[in-house]
Design goal:
alpha+beta; 3 helices; 22% helix; binds zinc ion
């Protein structure tokens, strides 16, 4: 049996690791996840597991994260936006899926398969590429999540693709304000 079929056969069993990937220091931020081998488009690579929490709890944990960041501690984000009411917190998960970074031009997407979140290749991925997906964060909190993905599409902040134009508009407005200010 090919490894592709093996990976696709197990959408219901949570996995901590995957034959497709390994974790290493990231070119974007902190630790990241890299393709060990070429990964075909559509491959379900690994499940994103974590604690299911409410939006209010996610907000409380985000404040804690910002406090850690201010102290110079680990500022990695492990909150996965599940739906309108709940998020997944992967911080204490053993799944390396929590280490995937956000990119404004990601090579992976997430799929919800009967309540299980899978990281799936959205195009063919070459061995050695860093795996990324769109964190899908709301425009409301754009300023606290700077993006360092470095892709030509990057808006400089982690915001879902549908709302990135709002960030571009806000940045344009700030630039013209600065330019108009008398010296
Ligand atoms: Zn970016």
């Amino acid at each position: 049996m090919s490894t592709t079929r093996l990976a696709r056969r197990r959408p219901s069993s949570p996995t901590d690791s995957s034959p497709w990937i390994s974790a290493a220091t990231s070119g974007i931020h902190g630790r990241g996840v890299y393709a060990k081998v070429a990964i075909p488009d559509g491959t379900r690579i690994i499940e994103y597991t974590g604690e299911r929490i409410t939006k209010a709890e996610a907000l409380r944990r985000e404040q804690q994260r910002l406090a850690r960041q201010a102290r110079g501690g680990d500022d990695s984000v492990y909150i996965f936006v599940l739906n309108q009411r709940h998020d997944l917190d992967g911080r204490r998960s053993r799944s390396v899926a929590r280490l995937l970074n956000h990119s404004c031009a990601p090579n992976c997407k997430t799929e919800n398969l009967r309540g299980h979140i899978w990281i799936t290749a959205r195009r063919d991925i070459a061995a050695g590429e860093e795996l990324t997906f769109d964190y899908g964060y709301s425009y409301k909190e754009w300023r606290i999540h700077p993006c360092r993905c470095g892709t030509p599409k990057c808006v400089g902040f982690i915001v879902n693709s549908a709302q990135r134009w709002l960030v571009r508009r806000a940045l344009r407005a700030e630039r013209s304000l600065r330019a108009a200010r008398p010296r």
